Amino acid sequence: MSASTAADRAAGRAEAPNRRERARAAMLDEIKQTALELMAAHGSTDVRFVDIARAMGLTAPALYRYFADRDELLTAMVVDSFDDLAASLANARDGVPAEDLGGRLLATCSAYRHWASASPQRFALIFGQPVPGYAAPEDGPTTEAAGRAMGILAGIVVEAIKRGELRQPLVREVGTTMCALAAGKAAELGADLPAATYQAMLHTWATLHGFTCLEVYGHLGWMGAAARDELFAAQIRATAISGGLPIPGDRD
């Protein structure tokens, strides 16, 4: 279905989807939603066409009118998940004044955490154990979607570089392989990205992801929601201090 808005279609700038296109889009959404529900019920991202069809009251061959195979379905679900995550991160970032980069960092990290808790099946699909037998297309839609989502965090660092708001990371030793990766990332971002800062960015994501996994999979439930919130805010602040990144709550 077209991504055009209702206003675009009303103004004649885009063609409205016909009834068949709307019905097809609704069926695609139902298939993906059913797959997510089965993942939640089975505690696994490994789903079968036959199970999806049975849950929808269809025959398995009927699903092939919408997806060529299970891998195509999973690819569509991975792209949807990354896009939904990207929208959540961008909305959280944009809810904080542009001049408060530390606040934007905390808001974006918090959105990552909350999205994962609210969408554990999607989180598992894109960041959990690989689905048996599934391999995402190389340099395809899943890679592009992942780049859009994770680029939100990288963009905060790039903005800090442009404003001269970065400090030296506490860990400044960087291996030759990591230096090469940093050079490639700098070219991709179009920014003068020091290798130690790139390494600190990865430390920040690893810290954020580690906390999120512990919480999503129930390992921090013993301390209660308020304690988890406090620990998370302190952890992001500590990581920013260590990495030389904008520090939440430290606006002059």
Tally of separate domains: 2
CATH class of the largest domain: Mainly Alpha
Category by helix and strand content: mainly alpha
What is the 3D form? globular
Task: List unreliable stretches of 5+ residues.
Answer: none
For the report, how would you describe the main beta sheet? Answer: none
Mean pLDDT rating: 90
Secondary-structure element string = HHHHHHHHHHH
CATH superfamily of the largest domain: Tetracycline Repressor, domain 2
Rg result: 21 Å
Beta-strand residue percentage: under 5%
The helicity comes to: 55-70%
Tally of separate helices: 11
* Through-space gap between termini: 48 Å
CATH topology of the largest domain: Tetracycline Repressor, domain 2
How many DSSP E strands?
0
Give the CATH architecture of the largest domain: Orthogonal Bundle
How does this model look, in words?
With 252 residues, this protein is mainly α. The protein folds into 2 domains: 1-67, no CATH class; 69-243, Tetracycline Repressor, domain 2 (Orthogonal Bundle), CATH 1.10.357.10. It has helices at residues 6-10, 19-42, 49-56, 60-63, 70-94, 101-118, 120-127, 141-163, 176-189, 195-216, 225-243. Helix 2 crosses helix 3 (49-56) and helix 6 packs across helix 7. The longest helix has 25 residues, at 70-94. It is globular, with a radius of gyration of 21 Å. It starts with 5 loop residues before the first helix and ends in a 9-residue tail after the last helix. 30% of the residues are buried.
Brief summary of the model shown:
By secondary structure, the chain is mainly α. The chain has helices spanning 6-10, 19-42, 49-56, 60-63, 70-94, 101-118, 120-127, 141-163, 176-189, 195-216, 225-243.
